[in-house]
Design goal:
Strand content: 15-25%
Number of domains: 2
Bound molecules: flavin-adenine dinucleotide
CATH superfamily of the largest domain: FAD/NAD(P)-binding domain
Number of helices: 9
Order of helices and strands: EHEEEHHHEHEEEEEHEEEHEEEHEEEH
Radius of gyration: 21 Å
Number of strands: 19
Helix content: 25-40%
Structural class: alpha/beta
Shape: globular
CATH class of the largest domain: Alpha Beta
Distance between the termini: 9 Å
Largest sheet: 6 strands, antiparallel
């Protein structure tokens, strides 16, 4: 029987393992991080301090454990240019992870003020689609720490279904090398032992996957994007926005999005303001994919175009917040950060439209394959791409 190894259990790895194992394929998932209850996921943040601060989590479920629950369709046009249509997979994934907008009862005063103020300015701000179960959610503003009520979808759900169908999950085990002999894929190496397989799929995320590819002799790691963001905010006394569901609304502009967002960094910057006194908005851009992952470094800076987009978004956020009642004198910004690293094993450059590398049987299914910054939450796209690969592998290759 064909053996498949999936490296990493985040957005790409979990659904792929589930899709393969329910089609009767023998799957082993090897995950660097530990198993963790959703509410403890924040303990596993692995933050890279480069020009732009890049966040991810290393644990079972990967970075899906700390998402804000935002479920937006992205990259469809870009993928079509590469002959990839993920419409059907997006429909399936949205059904599986339960995408919905939240009921009015889960919208707080701060978010409503921002939405009203945007509408008064003639800007179309809509409810954000979420993979949050409204029956379980009690707003606390802490989605990105991991949900202690397990109200938010995470990749652990696909992992559970994969294990129920016979997949094996090995945690606390980093893959350190791809095994190749006589130009043929043999499996992977971990510190303790080698695992042999016919097919290996790298789903280790856009920082780790290119490093494994580089060690296998492939050119990867260029064109890193992160969907750079800043949070702009100011003082609105006792608004209590920090305990609302974050990013519960969405304003789309060309190459950027705006969404209601609190950051504790803002509270530290505004004299006399407590966290409950701050109203803020995230400005997230489609950044230039000019970063680079090498064996021992990550380079990511803001280009002139990135700065222009961030400024445009910040100006708009400042106007919306001011008309929502924020003291304009108090407006400040966080530094530039990025939570969506991708692009480092891009379709068309490092993998083909079936997500296979030049090494037969070695595939990639994670944010690395996305060719261009989405400038918006990418999880649905990663899930759809990995599901499509799962179908291809189980129906046409195995
Ligand atoms: C704070 C925050 C909020 C976010 N909110 C949203 C949101 O609301 N909506 C959205 O769409 N996106 C969101 N994102 C982005 C989203 O979580 C990521 O884009 C997505 O999880 C990336 O999927 P991936 O499969 O590429 O990597 P990951 O999900 O990071 O999975 C990679 C996995 O591989 C493991 N791994 C790494 N190296 C190795 C190795 N050598 N061997 C074995 N295992 C390894 C890691 O431990 C990890 O479990 C958010 C991100 C952050 C940081």
């Amino acid at each position: 029987m064909t053996k498949v190894l999936v490296v990493g259990s985040g957005a790409g790895g979990g659904i792929l393992a589930s899709e393969l194992s329910r089609n009767g394929v023998e799957v082993t998932i090897i995950e660097k991080g530990p198993s963790t209850p959703p509410g403890d996921a924040h303990r596993h943040y692995d933050i890279i301090n480069t020009g732009v601060e890049i966040s991810r989590t290393d644990c079972v479920g990967g970075t899906t454990m700390v998402t804000a629950g935002n479920a937006v369709r992205t990259c469809q046009e870009e993928l079509l240019k590469h002959g990839i249509n993920i419409d059907a997979e997006l429909d399936e994934v949205e059904e599986e992870v339960g995408v919905t907008t939240l009921p009015d009862s889960l919208f707080g005063e701060g978010t409503l003020k921002i939405m009203d103020s945007a509408r008064e300015m003639g800007l179309a701000m809509e409810k954000m689609p979420k993979f949050i179960d409204p029956r379980l959610c009690r707003p606390c503003g802490k989605c990105v720490l991991g949900c202690s009520r397990d109200a938010k979808w995470t990749s652990q759900e696909y992992l559970k279904s994969a294990i129920n169908s016979g997949a094996v999950l090995i945690d606390n085990t980093p893959v350190v090398d791809i095994l190749i002999k006589d130009e043929k894929l043999k499996g992977v190496r971990t510190p303790d032992k080698d695992y042999l397989a016919d097919v290996v799929v790298l789903s280790a995320g856009a920082i780790s996957t290119p490093r494994l590819l580089q060690r296998a002799g492939l050119e990867a790691g260029a064109k890193l994007f992160v969907d750079t963001f800043v949070t702009i905010g100011g003082k609105l006394e006792a608004i209590g926005f920090n305990e609302e569901v974050q990013m519960n609304a969405l304003l789309k502009r060309k190459n950027l999005i705006l969404s209601p967002h609190f950051s504790s960094i803002l509270a530290d910057k505004i004299p006399g303001a407590l966290p409950g006194d701050i109203l803020g908005m995230m400005v997230k851009i489609r950044d230039s994919n000019q970063g680079q992952v090498t064996t021992n470094s990550v380079v990511k800076y803001n280009t002139a175009l990135d700065v222009e987009l961030l400024c445009e978004g910040a100006a708009l956020a400042g106007s919306i917040l001011t008309s929502a009642g924020v003291d304009p004198q108090s407006l400040v910004s966080t530094p530039a950060r990025g939570a969506h690293p991708g692009g480092t094993a891009a379709i068309g450059d490092v993998v083909d439209s079936n997500l296979e590398t030049k090494i037969e049987g070695l595939f990639v299914a994670d944010a690395s394959v996305i060719p261009r910054a989405p400038g918006a939450p990418p999880v649905l796209t990663i899930l759809a791409l990995a599901k499509r690969l799962g179908k291809y592998l189980s129906k046409e290759r195995i």
